[in-house]
């Protein structure tokens, strides 16, 4: 039996009749086929632990692809570059009956037009109402897309002939991958290339000869990819290498992640990478093909100003990029952890210790049955719900505390921590717990203490496990601890004897201070 899939996808078979005349008709039928086909069943969906995708079998050599793909290109101006981009896409090796191209014209005056040399199934659409800029335009294109897989391509990217095919081979290996397309930056000015020349060169497999590789500039992410064995040994921050110029994801995961954050004008690709990570994606760099980025990096011209813009926007949305958050004890829109505590005796003390700890960027949810207000005349001291009302009143002014009847999972928050009301967390307890989970690449960590069990669940691991119908231990790893420093962090200090006076406590404090510094980027 193959694992069940919770992300619905598409697995249409390609037409046996090639040619531009058939391409649009065949592609339009893919949407109907997707209603009865589950992508996971076709892919077999092998389990990937962490980001080590080395166990996947990527199709090689001659193969018969079946996944349809929508190339979404947000564009504003630069008709000359768009003509070249579309000419290169018209020469792709991926079956044209499985490929569509959607250009989202984000307010160009005069409007962009489709050139004569373009893919058989290509169209220009306006963005949906209510927004502008790249992220909104991309979301608008995805809403119109019929493909199983979305390839997001910049409007100044000259793709090699197998650029789309190379990424799609990975998507035929598993249905929860975010594949990063390779590129090099080159100097370019209007008129340097003609669309017909580009088409012929790409078609002949000579796109690499259009520019001098030695004079081109690599992506900054290549250094990270190289030192992590192609991201296979990357930690929980593998998502940071996702950049907008060329990447692809199954449409189902795109939607499950919430799509791109249209509120952010610059830096939305990093935030989208984090959203994909939280939805359970595995990040795979594809170096078997490449592309030319026509012109320098956007950030190169006004780098410091662009970084200054990105910093607070990313910090509010991406807790895991420690260096993006200023060195300040404050709360952010997306907390590092959601801490759930059962309301009852001891809950207020436990919550106060968490809120006053070394990691202020937490959100505490008190779980219990919370009574409705009682506006009528009554004897308050005889109220059967008095304890619950007093606890609620105690935190009425604390923005970091919520009251709920049950656990409410927030996909944006990286860690969910359940805490017994009897816990006595030390100031650095959350930092030590998260640091241990990251150091040992764990998706779930349980710590047995007197009165119950502290449990940390990595949201990204839980999402992937649910998608695959697997245990968290299979996709990220799990550990249960019943003694040692983690227990001490949540159960309070042991009573030390003459030989141990201050010994274990001092070691724990030193380790905790290091964990806090790493966690906060200090």
UniProtKB/TrEMBL annotation:
Q: Does the keyword Transferase apply?
A: yes
Q: Where is this region: Disordered?
A: 1-22, 491-522
Q: Which residues form the Glycosyltransferase 2-like domain?
A: 70-191
> What superkingdom heads the lineage?
Bacteria
Q: Name one Pfam family in it.
A: Glycos_transf_2
Q: Which keywords appear in this protein's UniProt record, sorted alphabetically? A: Transferase
User: What SUPFAM superfamilies does the annotation carry?
Assistant: Nucleotide-diphospho-sugar transferases (SSF53448)
Q: Where is the composition biased (Basic residues)?
A: 507-522
**Phosphoprotein as a keyword?**
no
Molecular function terms from GO: transferase activity
Q: Which PANTHER family match?
A: GLYCOSYLTRANSFERASE, SLR2126 PROTEIN
Q: Know the name of this protein?
A: Glycosyltransferase family 2 protein
């Amino acid at each position: 039996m193959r694992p069940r899939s919770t992300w619905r996808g598409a697995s249409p078979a390609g037409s046996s009749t090639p040619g531009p005349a058939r391409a649009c008709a065949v592609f339009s039928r893919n949407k109907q086929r997707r209603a009865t086909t589950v992508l996971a069943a076709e892919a077999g969906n092998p389990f990937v632990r962490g980001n080590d995708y080395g166990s996947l079998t990527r199709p090689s050599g001659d193969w018969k692809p079946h996944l349809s793909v929508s190339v979404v290109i947000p564009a504003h101006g630069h008709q000359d570059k768009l003509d070249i981009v579309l000419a290169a896409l018209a020469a792709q090796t991926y079956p044209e009956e499985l490929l569509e191209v959607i250009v989202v014209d984000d307010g160009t005056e005069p409007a962009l037009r489709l050139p004569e040399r373009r893919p058989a199934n290509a169209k220009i659409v306006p963005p949906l109402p209510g927004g502008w800029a790249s992220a909104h335009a991309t979301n608008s294109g995805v809403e119109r897309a019929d493909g199983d897989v979305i390839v997001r391509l910049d409007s100044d990217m000259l793709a090699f002939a197998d650029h789309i095919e190379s990424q799609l081979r990975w998507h035929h290996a598993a249905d929860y991958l975010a594949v990063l397309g390779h590129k090099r930056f080159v100097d370019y000015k209007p008129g340097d290339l003609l669309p017909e020349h580009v088409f012929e060169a790409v078609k002949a497999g000579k796109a690499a000869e259009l520019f001098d590789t030695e004079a081109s500039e690599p992506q900054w992410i290549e250094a990270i990819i190289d030192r992590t064995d192609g991201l296979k040994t990357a930690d929980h921050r593998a998502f940071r290498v996702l950049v907008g110029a060329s990447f692809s994801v199954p449409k189902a995961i795109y939607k499950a992640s919430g799509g791109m954050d249209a509120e952010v004008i610059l830096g939305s690709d990093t935030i989208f990478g984090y959203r994909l990570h939280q939805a359970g994606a595995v990040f795979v760099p594809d170096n078997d093909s490449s592309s030319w980025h026509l012109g320098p990096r956007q950030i190169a011209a006004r780098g410091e100003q662009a970084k200054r813009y990105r910093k607070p926007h990313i910090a509010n949305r991406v807790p895991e990029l420690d260096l993006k958050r200023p060195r300040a004890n404050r709360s952010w829109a997306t907390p590092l952890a959601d801490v759930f505590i059962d309301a009852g005796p001891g809950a207020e003390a436990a919550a106060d210790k968490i809120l006053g700890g070394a990691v202020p960027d937490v959100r505490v949810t008190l779980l219990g049955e919370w009574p409705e207000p009682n506006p009528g005349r009554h004897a308050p001291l005889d109220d059967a719900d008095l304890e619950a009302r007093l606890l609620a009143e105690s935190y009425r002014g604390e923005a970091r505390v919520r009251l709920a009847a049950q656990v409410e999972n927030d996909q944006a928050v990286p860690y969910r921590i359940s805490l017994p009301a009897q816990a006595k967390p030390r100031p650095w307890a959350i930092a030590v717990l998260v640091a241990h989970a990251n150091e040992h690449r764990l998706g779930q960590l349980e710590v047995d203490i007197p009165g119950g069990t502290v449990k940390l669940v990595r949201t990204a691991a839980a999402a992937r496990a649910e998608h695959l119908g697997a245990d968290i231990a299979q996709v990220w790893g799990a550990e249960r601890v019943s003694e040692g420093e983690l227990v001490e962090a949540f159960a309070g200090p042991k009573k030390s004897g003459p030989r141990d006076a201050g010994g274990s406590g001092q070691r724990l404090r030193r380790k905790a201070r290091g964990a806090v510094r790493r966690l906060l980027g200090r």
